[in-house]
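Input record (one chain):
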Amino acid sequence: MARVVVDVMLKPEILDPAGQAVATALPRLGVTDVTSVRIGKRIEIEFAGEPDLAQAQRIAGELLANPVIEDFAIHVETASRPDSTAGPVDAVAAADPVEPDAPAAVAPQPLAEGTPLVPADGGQ
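The corresponding structure, as predicted from the sequence alone:
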């Protein structure tokens, strides 16, 4: 299976209010050296066989991007991704935050059947 990635971004001359909102919020996090933020989309297309870049170009140009206000770039993703059967919590819980490639010292244990889930605030 081959994966083609399409990155869609607003053209530089188009106002990006979401990017501006993030840039405005950064000083509240103590980040003061960022001068601009632009927000875009990443779309992954998986082909059954070899990636068809011409087909991906057509999909991006006619369906994924608005050519009037957006630019897009296409590339074939060659790096393998983590096992897709693990959910996001499983992937995080089983990793060491300092050394993500090292297995965690203690693997998380599943909850016993029937264990009630209570919000951190006690449901108040």
